[in-house]
Amino acid sequence: MRRSIPFFLAFALIAAGCDRDRDTGQERALAARALKGALAYPGSSIVSVSAGSDAAQIDFSSGAAVQDVVAWYRQALQLNGWEIHSDATDKSGTVSIYAAKGDRPMWITLRPNVGGPGSTYTLIGAIAADSTAKDSTKR
């Protein structure tokens, strides 16, 4: 599973680069930093990438059922050093997971597709205050 980490980050950056009209190099760098160590469910497609100075969001779609994607995330997060702090399912079948790795938080929201098979999910990562201070001192 650890091989997925570099692949995911490279894939996210390449996909973000395809939307050059609104994406900047700084936005891609912030997204990579905010979601460092995040994993994408195998076979997922990136729908959109957005980032600001404090956080980034990547939306994905998958042909897999939401239950399969959720089960994979529950295992993959723990195997890759993420601690799951919250895991809840609402009446519509949407699952919200909050996990952290050190001082880096990540929120994952997974939803079944409406009217068809598969699922969509969103990863949101925040840039920890410590990493922003450390990065600004690098030259």
Can you characterise this structure?
The chain is of the alpha+beta class. The chain has a single domain (4-137), classed as TATA-Binding Protein, CATH 3.30.310. 34% of the residues lie in helices and 33% in strands. It has helices spanning 4-17, 25-34, 66-79, 129-137; strands spanning 45-51, 55-62, 83-89, 95-101, 104-112, 119-126. Helix 1 runs antiparallel to helix 2 (25-34).
What is shown here, in short?
With 139 residues, the chain is α+β, with helices and mostly antiparallel strands. The protein has 4 helices and 6 strands. The protein has one domain (4-137): TATA-Binding Protein.
Topology:
Blueprint: H1 4-17, H2 25-34, E1 45-51, E2 55-62, H3 66-79, E3 83-89, E4 95-101, E5 104-112, E6 119-126, H4 129-137
Antiparallel strand pairs: 1-2, 2-6, 3-4, 4-5, 5-6
Which value, in Å, is the CA radius of gyration? Answer: 15 Å
User: How many distinct beta strands?
Assistant: 6
The helix content is: 25-40%
Number of helices: 4
Question: SSE order in H/E notation?
Answer: HHEEHEEEEH
Spatial shape: globular
Q: What is the percentage of strand-forming residues?
A: 25-35%
| Cross-sheet strand order for the largest sheet | 1-2-6-5-4-3
* Poorly predicted ranges: 1-21, 131-139
Sheet having the most strands: 6 strands, antiparallel
End-to-end C-alpha gap: 33 Å
- Average pLDDT: 80
Q: Pairing-aware structural class of the strands and helices?
A: alpha+beta
